[in-house]
UniProtKB/TrEMBL annotation:
<keyword id="KW-0813">Transport</keyword>
<feature type="domain" description="ABC transporter">
    <location>
        <begin position="21"/>
        <end position="260"/>
    </location>
</feature>
<keyword id="KW-0547">Nucleotide-binding</keyword>
<dbReference type="InterPro" id="IPR003593">
    <property type="entry name" value="AAA+_ATPase"/>
</dbReference>
<keyword id="KW-1003">Cell membrane</keyword>
<dbReference type="InterPro" id="IPR050166">
    <property type="entry name" value="ABC_transporter_ATP-bind"/>
</dbReference>
<comment type="similarity">
    <text>Belongs to the ABC transporter superfamily.</text>
</comment>
<keyword id="KW-0472">Membrane</keyword>
<keyword id="KW-0067">ATP-binding</keyword>
<dbReference type="GO" id="GO:0005524">
    <property type="term" value="F:ATP binding"/>
</dbReference>
<dbReference type="InterPro" id="IPR003439">
    <property type="entry name" value="ABC_transporter-like_ATP-bd"/>
</dbReference>
<dbReference type="GO" id="GO:0016887">
    <property type="term" value="F:ATP hydrolysis activity"/>
</dbReference>
<protein>
    <submittedName>
        <fullName>ABC transporter ATP-binding protein</fullName>
    </submittedName>
</protein>
<dbReference type="InterPro" id="IPR027417">
    <property type="entry name" value="P-loop_NTPase"/>
</dbReference>
<dbReference type="Pfam" id="PF00005">
    <property type="entry name" value="ABC_tran"/>
</dbReference>
Length: 288
């Protein structure tokens, strides 16, 4: 079975056909004429369409720098990033154009508190003006229903639980039909019980939408639970130190956490993560 078929099997059937990201020999040096901070060091990584790719690495290693390069928020110094074979940034074009095909999901606090959940979800497409208002609201209601948000359409974000708010934030991003969702440690401050609710919500929404997910985390358990693949980065400057296929089939639920394979994968990876964290600590990187 090839990798795509395997991924298709693992993700529960229908495979995504768009949103393949290739990071090819990317280097990023901040302030090259001054302090010259090298954040990314000849990093190469292929992410398949519809893959949940978890990026794990110590504080300050350069994970967000990579995410920002994909999103088009920052330039790269050399190398190339492509999406579905098209150059996002590379030689002669150091910075990608930000676009609705790659959306950073800002979790917690990014909703307009004075708009209802439905109005928040419909906001982006309404502003873009590419679809009719009726069509947008129909789509918004349908996507909210798919994400378990029926009945909350007319509530304001402050009136629903934080779990439901975060679902609204993801649905708002998905309204733009992105190929890739980018998450930068969305659940870092949450206790493990709340996190587990968030993880299940994210997977539930993912199984219906199958976009590519680039997800940064410090939390190894979270990474193995959610990801098709785990990319463990070196301490700064970052590049993949170990890439691991998480061979636990999707759909997953919380029973996975106590399975022998999950524990094996934790054991296989925790020493590497710990080693890089120690290097990063010794180099004086601070908790971001
Ligand atoms: N605009 C900038 N100018 C100079 N240095 C920067 C800039 N942005 C980030 N850096 C440095 O680049 C390195 C990588 O930063 P980045 O935010 O990508 O790391 P990270 O792995 O996402 O960290 P964390 O997990 O703590 O969020 C850090 O040493 C950081 O201080």
């Amino acid at each position: 079975m090839n990798t795509t078929q395997e991924r298709q099997r693992q993700s529960g059937g229908r495979a995504a056909t768009q949103g393949a990201i290739r990071i090819d020999d990317v280097v990023k040096v901040y302030d090259p004429d001054g302090a010259a901070v090298m954040a990314v060091d000849h990093c190469t990584l292929d992410i398949a369409a519809g893959e949940i790719c978890m990026i794990v690495g110590p504080s300050g290693c350069g994970k967000t720098t990579l995410l920002n390069a994909i999103a088009g928020f920052h330039s790269i110094s050399s190398g190339t990033i492509t999406m579905d074979g098209e150059v996002l940034c590379g030689p002669g074009k150091p910075k990608a154009e930000p676009g609705s095909d790659r959306i950073v999901v800002f979790q917690n606090g990014a909703l307009f508190p004075w708009k209802t959940n439905l109005e928040n979800v419909a906001f982006g497409p309404l502003m873009q003006g590419k679809m009719g208002k009726k069509e947008i609201y129909e789509k918004a209601r349908r996507m909210m229903a798919d994400a378990g948000l029926s009945g909350t359409e007319n509530n304001y974000p402050g009136e629903v639980s934080s779990g439901l708010r975060r679902r609204v934030e993801i649905v708002r991003a998905l309204m733009n039909d992105p190929k890739v969702l980018l998450f930068d440690e969305p659940y870092r401050a949450l206790d493990s019980l709340t996190k587990s609710v968030m993880h299940e919500a994210l997977l539930e929404i993912y199984y219906k939408n199958k976009v590519t997910i680039f997800f940064i985390t410090h939390d190894l358990e979270e990474a193995i639970f959610l990801g098709h693949r785990l990319v463990i980065m070196t301490s700064r400057p970052c590049r993949p130190k170990k890439i691991l296929d998480v061979d636990i089939p999707h759909p997953r639920d919380y029973s996975v956490l106590t399975s022998p394979r999950f524990r094996e994968l934790m054991e296989e990876t925790s020493a590497i993560v710990h080693e890089e964290a120690k290097k990063s600590f010794a180099a004086g990187e601070k908790e971001g």
